[in-house]
């Protein structure tokens, strides 16, 4: 497995750099045949793993800048192609242009696939690349080529869905603890509780990365829409009979491989999980999430006037009860701390404004032409709709800090998904129930 | 599985064609989201399977000609790219040009991967495409795109090598009988004999085509280089102790998937089989083939003067003994029939000329700058060398018909492979032992 | 695997016999600890495999006669037991008597279990034992001890039911060809046909004999009760849709291990197969066999007066049409040959008598207090009932030879099985439909 | 799985008892056939699981006392047997006597095997039985029959050895934590450390109890004999390269199934583990344990005069340094507490006496004619020898409490095992190195 480099970022000695360049050239030329070339590529991959961040950056720059296509050859092929357009020769010319565009970069990277766990190596190499890319945009062509290759290799048709249970290898379950990105798994006992008979956990795997879940989703089989994640994760709560459940709640979805950014399969995973659950539990009627609003507070801080407007009707009462200045900024400072939630009467005063704020955030907050909230982008992009906002639904410290304790249910209504996707993609229209639309306006 | 179409090749009704075009457009645009698009693509794939040859051809032409890149968009991106060359913007511009080149064709084809056994479907679709391509070169751009995608998907890093034994599923072993391309497997008894303890059979598999061997090789563990394939395949021959063998003979290598033309992995298979055999049988010293010369007769018929020259010294004696005209053409007509082999004295007379002919054929026969013999192209391209020519080594009817009963051993000498590959690729130099070189000149 | 000994039956040299006796004593005493004793037992087992029939017989006699319990120790323990009966000491005394009865024989045999495939070795050893037992009743105590041990080891709770398909290992399917005892499997094509989608084949396996089916049953999924086995086995018949079938026909049940005589599991296999089929094919309503009457002709030859009585009404017409003497013996000689079946009119004349004969045979033919027909013993003992007699149902040579072409359907009516078993076991009452009872009387 | 009964021990209502008796009779008689009988037995097994301790006891008494053999039938068969002794009829008569001894008890218990996890059910039922047996010796005959049946079913030839790694199912590894009987596994981190690359863990499994290890052994691959279990279990110690190790230390062996008392396989497990390790690590030269002396303190308390004698030479100095009365009893009270170990000088004073005590305990302490120490009984019975006594080798509270911190290495010297076993079994001779013998005398 690609181990993390030491963070130090020193430049490579010129001699070593020259040797790497030479080896890359040999790989690109496949000297001595494909079989030998792969053997050499494996050595080069080992070299890469031994480098620190600075060395890896230079290594990748070498590939990015010196092993691209030849612009002159591209120009010639392009000119022939444009002349052929409209004639029967167009298609041959197109193939020739495509051949001229083919770079040695991807040839070299593909050869790295020869090492054991080569796919995981390339995914991790891409993670490195993405880190460097922020400050070094010249790596972009290489990144795009690698992203395309990974998109091809991780086509959803190749992925295997597996249900993970307490019978799964400990080495695999340990990865869930490590990768869980939404609600931290605190212990093996917590993990076992999440795999209990009224729970389901599904993951996608690639046949060449057998103990690395690519993405996984945790599901609770319950009655009625859940409105509290702490309740779902309570290890001492009794186990319910899943065959009497009417609702499946997706309460955590985690992508695990940074290096697969831009390669999407979450939508397919949900589709297949819903199909699987329907088959096993015919009484299930509702498929929904209990999702965080991870950037609600960030957005509120950037849009203090919206925050103030949402709380205007109740601000005076809240301030008096809470013992703060009757000032929206003071309230904004108070809410992330969470202590206010212990005071039931205060909470009741805060609730209307907070629901209003969350509704506006979801329905009007934008990043470009997409929703500001990244989780909303994913679920609305899949065709789900905003079903319900839940006050005091995540009372963990992180929950208050990110979203003042608010959570949201996105509902997957199989018959509406296609139309919702189209409305979302073409018109940017967001699916939401009337109550939430109303709250946003109220 | 992609079933063979009825051979009739009728045009599609205009209405059906229009509907298919519409569906392809929807796939290309991913209307309703990726998940729905794949579901529609699956229906389209089913439609394809129901078409006859003519219908399939039109279907593929539609994709090839109407879903390619937009030449204008390509021109714009290319122009920006050429202007950026040498500046830091080059790499972004390259990525943009590459994006402009990306066609909907491959997007559509990839979506077909969603059907069960989707990979096999695309491999078989390529087999159709290759058939149509002969007469319809406008399919070339599509074919190249599909070939590239299959090359990416069938990267050797994804393939699994398996040893096939009598313990393998009958449904899988049946495929060996069906696909064996060199020496026909006549019965289950013949097959069982080829999987006996002094034999090995290895195949490459793709994780998504689990009961489809992509290529397989049959190996006999023997003492000394084999010089007769009938002896190797004799079901009544006693089973030898493989742990005392010093030589592994690869006596049959069969590619099974027409649709993977241009995607090579035979060299990797041999490499891994040799590694595996060395580990299991440390006494093995020699790794060699016993290979046919499938186009020897074809080449001789095209080069009658070479044939005549090879037999000139002995022609008179041969003709007298065989009772034919003392004429090279008469001899050329006699040899493919094989009856002459029963006459030991006649055979002795024929042998020197035939060995000479085979040596010249191998070492001087060309197709372009490559050897004329396709099997030689493969093994010499892998770095093997021509080790020995074997007279009356394949006395089956097909053996006489194709190569007058001659066979050849190619030797895989691990230490020489790289140098041989380089000499072959760069200088077109063929590796052969002195005896064979001498015979070619003699 | 226990290979068959050469049939020659020579006595063991005295010296070898003495050495074997010594080794058996060491095993019985577990000298050097259990671990060493097993290692020595393994050598002894190898010795056994190397012996011819005579040697094996002597080997087994040694164990049978010299390693039994000590009669004096048994007498003492028995006397103590009888005195303790009725007192609290009875149970301790019973355990002591049981300990005195424990022989070294079974200890030795169990140690043989240590060799690889030890279970199969013991099953095959029992097959040897049964062969010798016919002529050497002194082996009986050993045979019973071994039978008890095998009964314990092959308890149905340990057996695994598996569905065998064309995906099963060839080495396993080959065993079906070898073991099929009812309707010979003629070729791999015949076998594949019997595993087609409208067929099922199930077998019981022991976890320590993984490629040895213990018993297997072949099932056809059809509409209506089958009345012809040739029709069922027709390789060219179209494959039916099993999901539309209403009837499962068990047309062949084969026990494979001679050494497991007396260990029964056929009834459990049918029970579990029926459960499995019901789950997979809810439309199935009828579970029945199409069974041979393997000893019909034998019984008729032993009871010529019954035969004569059955055919009396039609004998004159039959004889005239067939051109034989109007004599029941002549008819008895004619029927096994089968040519008469080609003459439709003659067949029509013969049918009533033959059905009558078969009905009487089934319902009145006895061996002790059980049905004479071994297949009837099995199915009626399981609670099935005689449902229908089928004329010209097995027109293979063996079918005519054994039963004049007659076959029978036994019906498994789940709700009646228990009551039928009790009636059969307690009162010897046979379950049969009225039509068959009527035929028997007619 | 057989769940633990509530501890309350109430008598069964007469009505329920009568119904159970009736059901047991039906099982014993196999009314309605074997298949139905097993179905009824399964219900009875469920009934058993629902009973509390008192109910289970009565249930088992029913089987024990009312379903045994018929003493009169036994008497008759025995008399016939004794008369036949010496004649050819002996063997038939022996089989008949054996049949008369066969009880319905074991028939009933075997039928319980039909429930899912039936084997585990019977093992747990035996655990119940052993608990009741202490106070109710009338259960003995039943217990012995069940022990015999379990001995037959758990024959080592049926057990599978598996190496347990971090790749094993979490549900299985959780069992290790639960069953570890020697050195408690404190956490999943501790467990993972015990499965690291310089560790091995092996277990025996029965094919019908797939996630229940029957016995497992933990091994450390080290250099030189280990003398401290805390060092072995240190999670922060660096992982050693197992391929450079010369010694395998078995530091924990745990039997897991109370119900299998009297069924032994620990010796076979060690034999197979040693074979496996030798194959994987050819450099291993020494196979030894690091074992507790679990009853050292108990024995010392029972033999205060031996204790006093061992410490006599140093008692005055020890007492002075430790600040206790110069009295052996005071020292015996001090040692289990362990604080003295922190004082290096005091520890040095105590060491000679403690080593002497441990040596005498091991070599002279007896329970009947076997060693007093249960671990010694096991290892010396397997042919190992006492190799070294280790002072302050287990400094956990339990270590001081049971054995004043002492541990012992037993050495498995393959070439000596057989002779040692024989000396142990026949003459009660204990294998020990001279140094230990010397210490015992000193």
Describe this protein with a few key phrases:
disordered N terminus; 21 helices; Butyryl-CoA Dehydrogenase, subunit A, domain 3; alpha+beta; MCD_N (chains A, B, C, D); 3 domains; Aminopeptidase; Malonyl_CoA_deC_C_sf (chains A, B, C, D); homotetramer; Malonyl-CoA decarboxylase (chains A, B, C, D); 442 residues; Malonyl_CoA_deC_C (chains A, B, C, D)
Summarize the SSE layout with pairings.
The structure is a homotetramer of 442-residue chains.
Chain A: H1 14-29, H2 33-50, H3 53-66, H4 71-84, H5 90-101, H6 104-112, H7 118-133, H8 140-153, E1 160-163, H9 170-179, H10 188-194, E2 199-205, E3 215-222, H11 229-232, E4 247-255, H12 266-280, E5 286-289, E6 291-292, H13 296-302, H14 304-311, H15 315-322, H16 328-334, H17 344-364, E7 366-367, E8 370-371, H18 374-381, E9 385-390, H19 397-403, E10 407-411, H20 417-427, H21 434-441
Parallel strand pairs in A: 4-5
Antiparallel strand pairs in A: 1-2, 2-3, 3-4, 6-10, 7-8, 9-10
Helix pairs in contact in A: 1-2, 1-3, 1-6, 3-8, 4-5, 7-8, 14-17, 17-21
Please, could you describe this protein's structure?
The structure is a homotetramer of 442-residue chains. Chain A has helices at residues 14-29, 33-50, 53-66, 71-84, 90-101, 104-112, 118-133, 140-153, 170-179, 188-194, 229-232, 266-280, 296-302, 304-311, 315-322, 328-334, 344-364, 374-381, 397-403, 417-427, 434-441, and strands at residues 160-163, 199-205, 215-222, 247-255, 286-289, 291-292, 366-367, 370-371, 385-390, 407-411. Chain A has 442 residues and is of the alpha+beta class. The first copy, chain A, has three domains: 14-68 and 103-153, Up-down Bundle (Butyryl-CoA Dehydrogenase, subunit A, domain 3); 157-289, Aminopeptidase, CATH 3.40.630.180; 296-441, Malonyl-CoA decarboxylase, catalytic domain (Aminopeptidase). In chain A, strand 4, helix 12 (266-280) and strand 5 form a beta-alpha-beta unit. Mean pLDDT of chain A is 92; it is low at 1-6. The interface between A and B is large, with 64 and 64 residues.
């Amino acid at each position: 497995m690609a181990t993390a480099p030491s963070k130090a970022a020193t430049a490579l000695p010129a001699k070593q750099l020259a040797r790497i360049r030479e080896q890359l050239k040999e790989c690109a030329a496949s000297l001595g045949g494909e079989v030998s070339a792969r053997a050499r590529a494996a050595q080069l991959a080992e070299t890469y793993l031994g480098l620190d961040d600075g060395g890896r950056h230079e290594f990748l720059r070498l590939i990015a800048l010196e092993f691209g296509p030849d612009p002159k050859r591209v120009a010639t092929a392009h000119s022939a192609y444009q002349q052929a357009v409209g004639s029967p020769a167009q298609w041959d010319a197109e193939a020739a242009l495509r051949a001229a565009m083919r770079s040695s970069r991807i040839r070299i990277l593909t050869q790295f696939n020869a090492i054991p766990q080569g796919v995981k190596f390339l995914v991790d190499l891409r993670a490195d690349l993405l880190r460097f890319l922020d400050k070094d945009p010249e790596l972009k062509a290489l990144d795009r080529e690698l992203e395309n290759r990974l998109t091809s290799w991780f086509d959803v048709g190749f992925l295997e869905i597996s249900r993970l249970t307490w019978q799964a290898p400990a080495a695999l379950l340990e990865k869930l603890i490590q990768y869980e990105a939404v609600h931290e798994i605190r212990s093996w006992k917590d993990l076992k509780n999440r795999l209990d008979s009224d729970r389901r956990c599904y993951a996608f795997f690639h046949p060449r990365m057998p103990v690395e879940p690519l993405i996984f989703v945790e599901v609770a089989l319950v009655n009625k829409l859940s409105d509290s994640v702490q309740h779902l994760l309570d290890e001492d709560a009794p186990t319910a009979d899943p065959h009497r459940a009417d609702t499946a709640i997706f309460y955590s979805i985690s992508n695990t491989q940074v290096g697969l950014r831009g390669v999407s399969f979450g939508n397919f995973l949900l589709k297949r999980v819903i199909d699987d659950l329907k088959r096993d539990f015919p009484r299930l009627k509702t498929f929904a999430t209990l999702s965080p609003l991870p950037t609600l507070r960030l957005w509120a801080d950037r849009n203090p006037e919206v925050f103030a407007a949402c709380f205007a009707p109740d601000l005076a009462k809240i301030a008096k009860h809470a013992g703060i200045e009757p000032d929206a900024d003071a309230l904004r400072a108070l809410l992330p701390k969470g202590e206010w939630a212990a005071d039931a009467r205060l909470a009741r005063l805060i609730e209307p404004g907070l629901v209003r704020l969350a509704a506006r955030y979801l329905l009007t907050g934008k990043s470009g032409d997409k929703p500001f909230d990244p989780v909303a982008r994913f679920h609305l992009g899949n065709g789900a709709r905003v079903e319900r906002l839940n006050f005091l639904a995540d009372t963990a410290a992180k929950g208050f800090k990110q979203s003042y304790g608010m959570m949201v249910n996105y509902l997957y209504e199989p018959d509406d998904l296609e139309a919702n996707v189209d409305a979302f993609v073409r018109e940017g229209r967001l699916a939401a129930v009337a109550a939430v639309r109303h709250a946003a306006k109220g």
